[in-house]
């Protein structure tokens, strides 16, 4: 069946109507928009593919509200861009002005295009040697695409709206605003929307702070507007990756859920709003500062993509984002001829040595890292300029002769030593920030964002923000990084971002520059990776302060949180996975007690919590007994057996009734096998813990369920408190159907609090 179809007809009052129906049957999703007369489109269907899409011509009449007393002559039914001209009296979602006067636009659609765009790569997966392999398909990717041009000719404003239904099942829309009048057109807001069903009555977002990112919170959807605004020049720690709304009580495995995400790494807003008169709208967009976007005649502003994901439960919603992001990276590799490779196990030096760099210590640490199975050695902050602590030197991107003097113990010698051990070499940068106590700042005070000529924004971590919209500043930062990547043979950059971006005015233009700064960051990522094929870049922002589709499209990894305490990480990683696929999530085995919380945990718990993502180590191995090094090597070796599958697996989380436990898993695309983690965070209400459900399996298949080898011997690990053997916790395990495992579940081991085990499920 065609990916996209158009149907014409008339409404009950005789108005011409065009309905565009788009579907992606392979991922079980479809959408439909109605164009009534010359009005902007309205979303009239979002769900599973339907058997008779031609009937959607009647959807407008079926859903159109009657006029009621006390309101305008037309009861609002919001379009994709609600304005007062269509009787929307909620929060302003489209704000443009000319000559200091706000324009109230009434858009007339002048052209509709609906086609399946066959462009870009589709991919076929095969299995070779027991591991997944991808190749570009003979057929291009098919993307149902709707484009509508509309204008208010009298006021000189045109918009071009585009909506795509991606092969992942994600729906995304954007709009370009074009000045077709004389004089400057100031753009203040463009906030696009998806209408949602009436029974979507509960909101889920995440909040948090440094060391406690992405904590879930729920509330009812009531009349009024709920919004989450990010105004720190990045999404920040408390940003919600998704704004989700669904049936009351929806979870990871149950309930219809509709989620929105703004794919933008700067200032943004996600919102949901319901008026007494109308269906709710879910949407968002970039937050623009006054004077930031000023369009001359013929110029245009393009919004970021607003993504929408529908599914039964959050597992399906998140799987669409994972599929999309994975394909973006396959596209990059295909375009640049870069072969895919398993995610290298990382050792990052930060919590091992902090600023205390020296050749002998770090070469010894590299030795221990290699012994543990580590494949990538990353030198963190403190290698450059006067950077012996966080108060000075940032921005002076030259190797410190005080710490790394030229000669046999130089930073180049360390990089060569690391490469000689068969490891990749990585280096830390913070390109967007500068210390006032630095040569860069002293020599170029005009390279720093500031609201006036004589006042700097409030500092954060003794830092200010480099104005990368200034071509000279951009050239300096890019040139320094490019040079060092070439000279040292850097394989990997850890890109940090530690200051909240406030009062972001470019001295070069005198205008706010948050929008242009974000584009400049994307450009550096792109330019560096294009100049050095195979170079990978991690996005770190004081940990997890900048995670969004925009940065995920250009980065190869994100640092999820500066907190590596596995108890805290259980939910930080779980809710980060709503957007981020596991192979891009930096998950490290740290010290005990954890440096961030001082909580002591077992090594087994720390390794189990780092197992599903991009595994790494944040630990001074030089101070650990050999027994712990050997145990780490055992777990790293086990991780390497599965990591290529983790990069294609479907991530699942169970809705356990017990708030003390977590069940998380990775399931093969064909559902032939899966690995699950059971975590006992605190003491359960039942003793032992009740059986847990395993989502994501083929209900009609028979599976063998057994412990992963590293978790088999509970007594040796000393993590359990069961007083008798658990019958199925043996190398042979037990056989059950997928349906039984998903409905009544399986009894986990009785564990002490803050412990976790891994077990596998294999189709018989």
What's the tally of helices?
Answer: 14
| Oligomeric state as shown | single chain
Overall, the morphology is: globular
Roughly how many Å apart are the termini? Answer: 35 Å
**What Rg, in angstroms, do the CA atoms define?**
27 Å
CATH architecture name of the largest domain? Alpha-Beta Barrel
- Indicate the percent of residues in helices: 10-25%
| CATH superfamily caption of the largest domain | Aldolase class I
Topology, number of strands: 38
Query: Which percent band covers the strand fraction?
Result: 25-35%
Main sheet: strands, sense, barrel: 10 strands, antiparallel
Average of the residue pLDDT scores: 97
What is the SS-derived class?
Answer: alpha+beta
At CATH level 3, the topology of the largest domain is: TIM Barrel
List low-pLDDT spans: none
| CATH class category label of the largest domain | Alpha Beta
In total, how many domains does the architecture comprise? 3
Q: Mind explaining what this structure looks like?
A:
With 764 residues, the protein is α+β, with helices and mostly antiparallel strands. The protein has three domains: 249 residues, Distorted Sandwich (Beta-galactosidase, Chain A, domain 5); 310 residues, TIM Barrel (Alpha-Beta Barrel), CATH 3.20.20; 110 residues, Golgi alpha-mannosidase II (Immunoglobulin-like, Sandwich). Helix content is 20%, strand content 32%. It has 14 helices and 38 strands. The strands form seven sheets. Strands 7, 8, 9, 10, 13, 14, 16, 17, 21 and 22 form a ten-stranded antiparallel β-sheet that branches. It has an eight-stranded parallel barrel with strand order 23-24-25-28-29-30-31-32, surrounded by four helices. A six-stranded antiparallel β-sheet has the order 33-34-35-38-36-37. Helix 4 packs parallel to helix 5 and helix 7 runs parallel beside helix 8. The longest helix has 23 residues. It is globular. It starts with a strand and ends with a strand. The mean pLDDT is 97.
